[in-house]
Amino acid sequence: MHWSHDELMHELLIVPRRAFLPWSGTEVIERPGWLQLVTPSFRQGGLNEVVHAQLDASEADAVIDATLARYRTLGLRFRWTVTPDCRPADLGQRLEQRGLERAELLGMVRTIDEVPAQDEVRIERVGLANLSEYLATVGAGWGLDPAPFEPYARAQLADPIARYALFLARVGEQPVAIAGCIAFERSLYLQGGVVLPEFRQRGIYRALTHARLRYAASRGLGLVTTHALRSSSAPLLERLGFRSLVEFSSYRGR
């Protein structure tokens, strides 16, 4: 299938704004030009984000200050994603002036013209039987308490239209890495993956990526997108056939 540039950009930037599962633990704040998530139980990160913001320059400072104040009052780690269509043009600078830390992202895409072969690394889908191992690996990989994430992970597994797929990698019997993805109507979006430090540079991240490409193909999806950190996953994904279409930033605070 041929994808126009506009179609690729839509799947890459607009569609992933819905890469979360609506559930009782998350407040979704939405109005024209604004999408925000607040999840009080996820104090260490996750589902606390300004996903999209188009603000008038005259109101931007007041909205920014009120938004940051709420996250900080709740004691939450959060991020604010600033894509090229966010406004005002100096939104990122205003966030940095308030102490948020900037991370550079690359919006990357890969078409599936050929399904990757099975890797030697053992990769398995996450279900109820291995959910505890998945969560423990999440905690070890990102240095956080995984317990608050269990209800959300269970809700992902129970999603009636099965949009969410979680993967666990093992070396022998030991869980060593995890990754996730969400299937949309026309594309698959790759979500956070992490390999335990002592098992990096063994092809495990590649195997997890290939597993998700095969999953996309199994659902009849010929396009995979992701927002990759320039400093870590982006170079790895480029070697796996992904190409960058756009640069933008995420700003992190607490």
Keywords:
single chain; 254 residues; alpha+beta; Aminopeptidase; 11-stranded mixed β-sheet; 7 helices; 31% strand; globular
Per the principal axes of the C-alpha atoms, what is the gross shape?
globular
The order of strands across the largest sheet is 1-2-3-4-11-5-10-9-8-7-6
Number of domains: 2
Q: Structural class of the secondary elements?
A: alpha+beta
Q: What is the overall number of helices?
A: 7
Query: H/E order of the elements?
Result: HEEEHEHEEHHEEEHEHE
Specify the biggest β-sheet: 11 strands, mixed
Overall mean pLDDT stands at 95
Report helical residue fraction: 25-40%
Please sum up the structure shown.
The protein has 254 residues and is an alpha+beta fold. It is built from seven helices and eleven strands.
Can you describe what's shown?
- With 254 residues, this protein is α+β, with helices and mostly antiparallel strands.
- It folds into two domains: 100 residues, no CATH class; 109 residues, Aminopeptidase.
- Helix content is 30%, strand content 31%.
- It has seven helices and eleven strands.
- The protein has an eleven-stranded mixed β-sheet with strand order 1-2-3-4-11-5-10-9-8-7-6, with helices on both faces.
- The relative contact order is 0.19.
